[in-house]
Amino acid sequence: MSRLRVRLLGHITVTDGDEEPNLGPPRQRAVLAVLAARAGQAVTRSELIEAVWGPVAPPSASSAIYLYISNLRKVLGKDVLASVDSGYALLLRPDQVDVSAFDRLTAKAARQPAAAAAAATLTEALSLWSGEPLAGIPGPFAAQERTRLTESWLRAVEASAKARIELGDHGDLVADLGVLAREHPLRESLRELLMQVLARGGRHADALEVFRDARDTLRRELGIEPGPGLRQVHAQILAGDDRAAVPLSVMPAHIAAVIRSDKRVYVGRAAEVAKVRDSVAEVLAGRGGMVWIEGDPGIGKSELLIEALADLTPGVCQLGWAVADEPDIRFPLRLIMECLGITVKSPDADRADLAAQLRAHPGGDDDPITGAVDRMLALVDRMCAHGPVVLVIDDLQWADEASVHVWRRLSAATRQLPLLLVTCSRTGHGRAELDQLRSRGRLIAVEPLPSNDVESLTSRLVGAHPGKLLRRVTDRAAGNPLYLREMVTSLVRDEAIDLVDGVAHIDKAHAEAAPRSLADAVERTCGALPQRTHEVLRWMAVLGPEATMDNVVALTGRAEPDLRAALADAVDANVVFGEGARLVFRHPLMREAILGGISPAVRLALHRAAAKALAATGAQAIRVAEQLASASAPGVEEWVPGWLAEHVTEVANHAPLIAADLLERVLEAMDAADPAREVLLATRVKVLFRLTRVTADQIEQALAASTDPVRTEELRQLLAAIIYRDGRRADSIRVLTESDVDGSLPSAWRQRRKFLLAHLVRDVTDVDAAETMARNAYDQAVAEGETGLMAHALQTRWIVESVRRDHVAALGHIEAAIDVVRGAADLAGMHFNLLDNRLFTLQNLDRMADADENLRAANELVVEHRLPVGPQVAAAVHYYWAGRWDEALYELDTITEDGPAITYAGLMDAGPAGLLLHGVSALIAGRRDDHTALAANLDAAERYLVITDSERESQDFLLAARALAAVRRGDVPGALAEFAPVLDPAYAEMMLRHQWLPEIVRLSLEHDSAQVDEAIAIAELEASRERVPARAYAALHRCKALATNDPEPALVAVDHYRTVGRPVELAVALEDAAVLLAARNAHKDATTAYAEAVRLYVELGAHWDRTRAKTRMSEFGIREPMHAVPGAGISDWETLSAAERQIAAMVANGLSNPEIATRMSLPRRIVQAHVVQIMAKLGVDTRAQIQMAS
């Protein structure tokens, strides 16, 4: 009876092979249904009676049960329907009953992270159904089970629909979901799915009608409003954010061909392959990570990648794979777009829309690159919600800066997403940003093959064991597989190898003639090809990524069959890959060898011909521009100016460096009367401004040619900003005041000029005069009804009071300014700046919780108004002092430095933000003993000139980081020299110099006592100006404690910091107190303070500070207390804040970060930072484990 199957999901039936016996009357089938639903379990007679008749059963029920059991045994057999104790059991395995199989499959689908796997499992589960469950079966059990199973079926249908929507396979769902929504009008989840499917099919109006109908039905039938899920889908459709990410499956055709090839030869490096595969296993289990593979050219990095990842198929995980090429470095985001499958032809509407946005940005203030980066990160988030994702970039050393930035942001996301980043890079690339990124991953250094692997590879290449002389020749390759292959291929091609008795021999003459270097070997391989093949290869090398058979046919004029025959020789020689639409060299060195053999004059002609041909065929503008840029000789052909005028926006968005070069060359060659010249001059200014290379002369040239009022005003404001940045405030003001405002200008541009002028004339050198000017400006703004200028005047008064250190009064002014602009959409940018000012003041009043709430409000404002910048820098400064260094670094990691957008904030504030970005990052790195990150950030900060007041006020973190770097070198005098501006009260009066004075005192005590007195004098001045004792007050006590060797003032500071919640300053104050207590032989109190300091340093990761404290305390014979070092992290749901619990609950329910961000009105980056924090607090390392912890 092992073939017996019982079906309850429809009319109840029993099959045994091809037989389907009669199961008798309805109540007899009801008994079978109860036994089948509990297969393998004992069911008592009383339970059967209750299930069939309910609580009021007839007296004959017991004898009826006997009869039914007897009849069923005749059908099923006594060995299947057995008597057990006082009841009966149907002895079947769970898989022999369709209900059990259905329950098992739906549970399995719920555990499967990949949408494709879940969809397949649910399809199998739903195929078990043939109609209404237990159809025609009477009794309360059947009724209850019918209800339960129907609900289970609906949940499975919904889960299947969700999976198919994620996969983009939802074309035929509308009809089925529509029927179910009508049958279950109060089931909101069905309506949600129906709305999503309609919207993604372009039927937005129909989707919104479904919502209206659902809302009306719920109000009418239940008196309630739609739930949060239905409201969220409705909001997403209204906002245009109704797309789900299509699962990723991107692999270059030539990589796929290598994987499929039965001729692939791979030898050695088993340990390295295992490391990559271990990381893949980790991501499949839900734990993200990063692998960094590096080695010399030709050493086998790409082969290692292919060997390790060959088994990754769409059914295993999502995969994106891209290979960089040298020209890519000039095209922002090209590489990462290729890796993520972002093209205008993508079947995923979100990817296609993103590609279109970058191809032809409509203009305006926002930098298209910045917006695209955020959308790409959100796309990866949504992909990871479907299941594990593996992203691969080979030859990252050729990646553009924007792609590297995205890769860095993604590396941070691996801490809480099932995301694996695999990177290959050459050694010696000379890019500091890659070195910093490299330190985040699992490093696999690809070393030369050992001699036994060289011998094995040689054997497989020649088909015999290498003889002694051949082994000596192959030793020249020094374990480089590419060199070895090309050398052996060259010898085989020259018929230099003889096989005798299974041994490969070579004579001395051929041995001497064998290639002496990798370059020589590659050149010989390419040089041995016929002339007809060389012509194809030259065009391939010139075209680069645009090398396709169609393009080569167009350029050469030769028939495609002829070209394919010529190309076959290169395929046979293993120089190019023979599959896929693109023609690809097997290794970059092959392309370099071909290009190296073309004279400069011929190469110039080829690039020009390629550009013209590509333009004629309507190729992407960036491809044409790349060819024009490569034809770098002076002058341009006649067709180029007109073409550039038509496509300059797309070129500037995709490749600003190339755009700048082309604009210079075209403008130089263009006739002064050409009507396109005006547009190109203005565009050159915008491009160079983004690249921070624009000059006042270039703007004035564009202004002189401009006839469009809006363009003229934009250029004039740019000119004022550039002159201001050069420190020429008066000249910048004259640019705006000595020109009339065109009456036809849109109001936004007129308002922009007023704000910029107000910013330029603001001068707080004399705070009393500035206060009077601000009062007068406020009165005038009120009289004229200028809301923005009212807020600006109040902001000036905030600056005045902040300089005076009356932070209470400053807070009143800034909150009044916020009240003025609140709710004004056109002043959202100013509202954001005012919230940034308020954060500064709350910090200085030690109102840390209010500062957190202020940041939340700023983030909500950014989301609500889609502002181009967020509060990352201000948040990082706050998190630094709040001891949340990981969050600070994450905020700073989200900032793109591709150049400022042409906005009010971009015009005036790029320098201060950059100084703080690298200053805070460097200081954290130094205190965490991360020399690489410290050096990288200090180097990056060198690009910023400190000229304006706001730049001087924002450089204090950078000064502290430079001083720390000097201390680390043992150069205390150099450290004090870095701090010199802090000791000058007239230098940047808004600078919060008191926060650095205790460190200056401590260093000065080691070197220069005169500076101790100077620092204390400034500390006393700063503290005396505080209307409410706060940070300066505590800093003064720390300075006095160090200068007088008295622990009591330090302990006063300790109490203050502990009360207000400032762990960073608390830790150092505790360290100083411990040293001073120890010096007075109060060892018990010293040890207690020291233990608390160490605990705080460990929580911060401040290894440098901890080492310093250990050294200082060891002078008194006090060792670091063992109990001071915290153990494992607390894994307790109750440790989460209310917001964290809310986010954790949504993660546990399977929502992606963008979905959570939408529900909570937060930026996606903030949600990601919260998830990282949640995982740390709960002691888990995957998102799935958050569900278990909940």
Structural overview:
With 1190 residues, this protein is mainly alpha-helical. Among the domains are: 1-169, Orthogonal Bundle (Arc Repressor Mutant, subunit A), CATH 1.10.10.10; 265-445, Rossmann fold; 451-526; 527-682, no CATH class; 992-1042, no CATH class; 1133-1189, Winged helix-like DNA-binding domain superfamily/Winged helix DNA-binding domain (Arc Repressor Mutant, subunit A, Orthogonal Bundle). It is built from 59 helices and 14 strands. A hairpin with a 2-residue loop joins β4 (81-84) and β5. α56 crosses α58 (1164-1178). It is globular. Residues 361-365, 897-909 and 1127-1131 have low confidence and may be disordered.
Give a short overview.
The protein is mainly alpha-helical. It has 59 helices and 14 strands.
Would you give the CATH topology of the domain at 265-445?
Rossmann fold
**What is the rounded Rg?**
36 Å
Give the overall silhouette. globular
Tally of contiguous helical segments: 59
> Major beta sheet, specifics?
6 strands, parallel
How much of the sequence lies in strands comes to 5-15%
Average predicted confidence as pLDDT: 83
Q: Uncertain runs with pLDDT below 50, 5 residues or more?
A: 361-365, 897-909, 1127-1131
